[in-house]
Amino acid sequence: MDNPKLEAQRREKDQFFKSHPQSPLMPQQQERFNGLRYYDYNPQLDLTVTADPFSDGEFVMIQTTTGDIRQYKRYGEFRFEVEGTEARLTIYEADYGFFLPFVDAGAGTETYPAGRYLEPEYLGNNRFHVDFNHAYSPYCAYNEGWSCPITPAENRLKVAIRAGEMMPVGDWVEGGD
Fold it and tell me: Where do runs of H (alpha helix) occur along the chain?
């Protein structure tokens, strides 16, 4: 995806958060909401990857921020490079499609501490479009009223992924500055 289309999507998301009745924000947050923060578009983190599928088709139970448990199938692992450092992540399969939760080295300072999410696009033959420019914070980053899957240990990176949504800040965030 090119930068103008990404910028348009980000503006639409901000408008949704600010004014839509189904926004993840509570009404008092919507009143003060002044937009999400994003990294600049990074074409080097817009990837087409091949996942090495797991042969066991193992299902894992992932705890959420509210203590619930959700079941996901471990689909496969892919490797990629970020600023000269090799990284690897596991893609999970859910009822609604593919799911890629991850925590990067910027978590807690630049990005939401519990991680960010992506829904990789399946291209066939174990290939996926993984565009980290679309990485987003889960709704539980905005207030405690949401239940979000906690990123499994195997998807905690030692390298920063400087693409996508950054940590929300401001007085609109529950417990914000």
Answer: 3-19, 27-32
pTM over 0.70: yes
- Over residues 102-138, the pLDDT tens digits come to 999 999 999 999 899 999 999 999 999 999 999 999 9
Token pair in block for residue 134: 């679309």
Residue 82 lies in a domain: yes
Residue 151 has what pLDDT?
Answer: 94
CB-count burial class (<10 Å; 0-12, 13-18, 19+) for 150: middle
pLDDT at 90 over 70: yes
Round to whole Å and give the CA distance between 100 and 84: 22
Q: What's phi and psi for 27, nearest 5 deg? A: -50, -40
User: Is residue 31 in some structural domain?
Assistant: no
Q: Is the distance from CB of 38 to CB of 166 less than 8 angstroms?
A: yes
Residue 145, domain member (yes or no): yes
